[in-house]
Known about the structure:
By secondary structure, the protein is of the alpha+beta class. It folds into two domains: 11-168, Oxidoreductase, molybdopterin-binding domain (Sulfite Oxidase, Chain A, domain 2, Alpha-Beta Complex); 177-270, Cytochrome c-like domain (Cytochrome Bc1 Complex, Chain D, domain 2), CATH 1.10.760.10. It has seven helices and 13 strands. Helix 5 (185-197) packs across helix 7. It is globular. The relative contact order is 0.14.
Amino acid sequence: MTIAGCSAIGPSARSHKIDSDTELIISSATTYRIVTAVQLSRSLPTARVTVNDPVYGRLKHYEGFWLEDVLRLAGIGFSGETMLVFTCLDGYQARLTRHEDPYAKALLAVRDLDSESGWEVFFHGKEKTTPAPFYLVWQTARRAGEATTSPGTSLPWPYQINRIDLRSAIESQRRLLPAGAESRSDVQRGYDLFTRSCIACHSINLEGGALGPELNIPKNITEYRDWSYLVDFIKDPSSFRARSKMPDFKNSLTDQQIDEILHYLRWMRERKPTSE
């Protein structure tokens, strides 16, 4: 995901105006705001970037607002003890903690400057869609004497964002990994794998995405699905369900890694919240 840096935009793109009135929720423990792209444009300067977009697989040009400006407008301070959770229209969630790349800068894009209609259509699976209404893209600056750098695969590029929440990173981990896991290396490894590969779509104790089902309450998935079924399903969901939105993991997770995720899920059976 190499970033090409800012560049000039053609005359047709310059004529675009931000006209989306879709709502964006921004919340924290002390803040709850609903804003639109039009309202943001009245309060914040817009920015334009050129990025090597991993969704489209080529250079793209976007207009939007720097994420730090949006958070500041909402009165939210992002620190090392907090995380940002971006929720998308379909329930997918992306999580962002403070990253170590000082050159990476996040833009909340509200317009695709390469498209006369405002957003270019792409295929998500077999469905046509766009990144609207809000799309998080990353730009990095050039280091002296070096080629343009990449923000790295650890930084999220969620699209169709409709909500941004500031959360306590400690509270999130407490719900996902209660005390006691330090004595189980397989559970710890399974937790690490789950938070890398699964949490964007699935939740544990209602912590995580809602694109796929909650996996622990009221019943843990290992309470009603047997081990071998779950292993086979994780490897190739489409062999069980037509039009499954879950990707297959047969080439990205080993059998041992799938077992470790299941050990973590089974361990969480006895660690459900007392009330919700």
